[in-house]
Amino acid sequence: MIYDAIVIGTGGVGSAALYHLAGRGARVLGIDRYAPGHHRGSSHGQTHIIRQAYSEHADYVPLLKRAFELWSELEEGRSEPLYHETGILQVGPADGAVLPGVLASAAEHDLAVESLTAAEAADRFPGFVVPDALSAVFEEQAGYLWSRIACGHKSSWPAATGRSCASAARSSAGSHPATGWS
Ligand SMILES: Cc1cc2nc3c(=O)[nH]c(=O)nc-3n(C[C@H](O)[C@H](O)[C@H](O)COP(=O)(O)OP(=O)(O)OC[C@H]3O[C@@H](n4cnc5c(N)ncnc54)[C@H](O)[C@@H]3O)c2cc1C
Questions:
Q1: Rounded to the nearest 5°, which phi and psi values hold at 90?
Q2: Can you tell me the distance from the alpha carbon of 137 to that of 115, in angstroms, rounded to the nearest whole number?
Q3: CA distance linking residue 89 with residue 130, whole number of Å
Q4: Do 84 and 99 share a structural domain?
């Protein structure tokens, strides 16, 4: 088999690259040190959170908006949703690094966030004890994803996409031969 593209590392990022290359008609191969769905990378686990108002920098927000669109597309044709909108509550010092960053991203990109005092946050989310010295920001359009689907797990790929690729892995436990995904 001659491949158009070979991606080394099939965590969330590599798997997404494979998925979109395959969707454009490329014959792709993903290679990883471990078998698909392994738990030794950053993408391990059943779920990951997703949000838009990144505290790190407002420049991330357009990428997050696009990520929401792509997760929504990935959801099509599946019986169970991948995205569960729970909102996200971030708590910290009002003059720290996180909350001002969230508010700046939200302001620049017109995202819906609510600033809450410690008392308001504790009242609305009684499961949390919020110290008086801290503040909170609640972002409504945020939640968690069943992100395991994104990590090269053969059984997770939606058959409806009609995409195919192959994976191969080698680990200390032995090698796993390339197998077709379709
Ligand atoms: C504990 C934790 C919690 C997180 N929670 C969130 C969250 O809730 N929301 C969020 O958005 N982000 C979260 N992140 C960040 C997010 O998970 C990572 O940014 C993302 O998973 C990175 O994906 P990746 O594909 O780049 O890396 P990885 O998932 O680590 O994939 C890299 C792959 O490359 C393979 N590899 C490495 N070296 C080789 C080699 N030499 N040859 C072959 N294969 C190789 C590895 O086996 C692995 O499969 C979290 C990260 C961690 C660690």
A1: -115, 130
A2: 5
A3: 11
A4: yes
State if residue 36 touches ligand 1 by the CB under 6 angstroms criterion.
no
Residue ID of nearest Cα to ligand 1 atom 51: 42
CA distance 164 to 65: 27
CA of 48 to the centre of ligand 1 (A): 11
Q: Domain of 58? A: 47-145
CA of 11 to the centre of ligand 1 (A): 6
Task: Please give the single-letter amino acid code of residue 3.
Answer: Y
How many independent structural domains does the chain possess?
2
Q: What are the DSSP calls for 24-37, one per residue?
A: TT--EEEEESS-TT
Kindly report, residue by residue over 127-142, the tens digit of the pLDDT: 999 999 999 999 999 9
The predicted-structure confidence for 48-99, as pLDDT tens digits, reads as follows: 999 999 999 999 999 999 999 999 998 998 888 999 999 999 999 999 999 9
The answer to whether residues 112 and 86 belong to one domain is: yes
The minimum-distance atom of ligand 1 relative to the CA of 170 is 43
Same domain for 91 and 137, yes or no, is: yes
CATH of residue 101's domain is 3.30.9.10
Tell me if 42 CB under 6 Å of ligand 1: yes
Separation of CA 151 and ligand 1 centre (Å): 9
